[in-house]
Amino acid sequence: MNKVKILVYGAGAIGAYFGGKLVQAGHEVIFIDKPNRVESLQAKGLKLRLLDQEYDFTPNIHADLDGLPVQDLVLIAVKAFHTYEIAMNLLPVLTPSTLIVSLQNGLDNEKILADLLGSNLVIGCVPSFSGFFSEQNTLLQQAPAHLTYGEMDHQPSRRLEWLSQILSHAGIEHKISNNITLEIWKSFLWNNSFNLISALTRTDMSQILACDTLRPTLDQMILEVQRVALAEGVEIPEETVEDLRHKALRLGQVKSNMLKDLEAGQLPELDPLAGTLLRKAQQYGISIPVNQTVFNLMQLTMMNYGLIEGA
After folding, report:
1. Are residues 148 and 257 in the same domain?
2. Is the residue at 310 inside a domain?
3. What is the rounded CA–CA span in Å between residue 156 and residue 178?
4. Among 27, 64, 144, 296, which residue's Cβ finds the most Cβ atoms within 10 Å?
5. Among residues 145, 178, 211, which one ends one of the domains?
């Protein structure tokens, strides 16, 4: 297929994986990251140690967008609390036909991007990827990766099929959803509940699920999320909850992203996850005491790690 101009904003684990697969497929991929990260990857390159292959390459990576050409596809792969900050920077590389896809955690990334850049440019997406950098430039994949995406109005479109062709050519597993809003909430249910408990208790997925005394807490956290989702017109089926437990069991000893962030001395995505949920609950007058308590405990943990300042 024809080469596509692709911008990957963020060269962390998820950006490196999906961006690397697209580079390998022959597309014109540009990465954006912080200056020190840019310098490191320009010098050492990226080494992808995937489940089915190894792939090394030197990324075309920059610290800003100055002088870059307009892009056909933009993948946002930064922490969700950076979404506002980078959105307006994207204007010089956008055209009315550019497609923007968020590969982020959280509920409101698509809304932020659509409000700032135009809803006609943005589709919804739920990424699934588990892996980590064993060294600054060596990415180890731990589980199969997958993208679920769709239009925010839940309608079919030609650009969804266009993106499917790009992903298929790059060997990226994916699915087009006719209800991406539900998929985003389902992903949030997973990320909010298991991420927070994992980070607070320093445990992996298998340890959490093996602890019977923790089951009522997890169940209540999930139920509270379901109530807020319903207030937004999204009904999360009960079988989804069981599917998430099975997913956690398959992951086994994988650590959550929040726990990895704590261990690396990096700021976890607490506000884009639990913080957003609390604000939505307050908006609808819904009490979510377990999620509020876990949020408070996580804030204290982050203070003790020196990641945020105390009140």
Report:
1. no
2. no
3. 7
4. 27
5. 178
CB 98 within 8 A of CB 70: yes
In sequence order, the 6+-apart residues with CB closer than 8 A to the CB of 133 are 12, 13, 139, 140
Whether 82 maps to a domain, the answer reads yes
Sign of the torsion formed by the C-alpha atoms of 134, 208, 82 and 147: positive
- Count of structural domains within the chain: 2
Is the same domain home to 114 and 23?
Answer: yes
Reading the chain (311 residues) residue by residue, the pLDDT tens digits are 799 999 999 999 999 999 999 999 999 999 999 999 999 999 999 999 999 999 999 999 999 999 999 999 999 999 999 999 999 899 999 999 999 999 999 999 999 999 999 999 999 999 999 899 998 899 999 889 999 999 999 999 999 999 999 999 999 999 999 999 999 999 999 889 888 999 999 998 889 888 999 989 999 999 999 999 999 999 998 888 888 777 777 776 778 889 999 999 999 999 999 999 999 999 999 999 999 999 999 999 999 989 988 75
Alpha helices by DSSP H, the chain: 13-24, 35-44, 83-87, 109-117, 158-169, 180-201, 205-210, 215-231, 238-251, 257-263, 270, 276-284, 289-304
Query: Which residues contact residue 60 at a Cβ distance below 8 angstroms, ignoring those fewer than 6 apart?
Result: 28, 29, 30, 31
Among 178, 210, 243, where does a domain finish?
A: 178
Instruction: Give pTM, 2 decimals.
Output: 0.95
Q: How many beta carbons lie within 10 A of that of residue 53, not counting itself?
A: 10
CA distances 276 to 185, 187, 236, 289, 301, Å, are 12, 14, 18, 15, 19
What is the CA angle 25-13-249, rounded to 5? 105
Note whether residue 211 is domain-resident: yes
- Amino acid letter for position 297: L
Q: Do residue 255 and residue 141 come from a single domain?
A: no
CB count within 10 Å of CB 203 equals 20
